[in-house]
Amino acid sequence: MATSKAKKKFETTLQLPAGEAPVPDIGKALGQTGVNLVEVKRAYDAATAGQRGEVVPVVITVFEDRSFSMRYKTPPTSHLIRKELGGPGSGRPGHEAAGVLSRDALRRVAERKLPDLNTSDVEAAMRIVAGTARSMGVIVEG
């Protein structure tokens, strides 16, 4: 992993399946940096093994000495909403409804996304998530 004294060389954000990161996807993003791709995959898979079945974004910073650090984020809001609905969003948002998201489900998604949002208020986070749900063609209760 990274040393704090090394100078940052490259930084990228990847959205990978938790616990089973495909090496080709990592290689496309990090191949030119010279970092050990298998080591990146092992570190990601070990850290996200408990969230299998979800997409977990990670910010990977590569340093000049070819060490790296990883900062994990929460799954994308759209992924969490689809998980709550049990299906995909609408093919034609605004014309066809994809489902109904209850107030409780909206709160669960907002609380899960709270660390990555630019607010610390759950009610504001719920409004942000509700906007994403509406853009997916999901009807929000309340």
Question: Could you explain how this protein is built, in words?
Answer:
The protein has 142 residues and is α+β, with helices and mostly antiparallel strands. The protein is built from 5 helices and 5 strands. A 3-stranded antiparallel beta sheet has the order 1-2-3, covered by helices on one side. Helix 1 (23-30) crosses helix 2 (37-48), helix 3 runs antiparallel to helix 4 and helix 4 packs across helix 5.
List the helices and strands and how they pair.
Blueprint (H helix, E strand, L loop, with lengths): L7 E10 L5 H8 L6 H12 L6 E9 L4 E5 L4 H9 L13 E3 L1 H11 L8 H14 L2 E3 L2
Parallel strand pairs: 4-5
Antiparallel strand pairs: 1-2, 2-3
Task: Describe the structure concisely for a colleague.
This protein has 142 residues and is an alpha+beta fold. 38% of the residues lie in helices and 21% in strands.
Number of helices: 5
Order of helices and strands: EHHEEHEHHE
Show unreliable segments.
none
Shape assignment: elongated
Short key terms for the protein model shown above:
38% helix; alpha+beta; 5 helices; elongated; 21% strand; 5 strands; two-stranded parallel ribbon; three-stranded antiparallel β-sheet; 142 residues
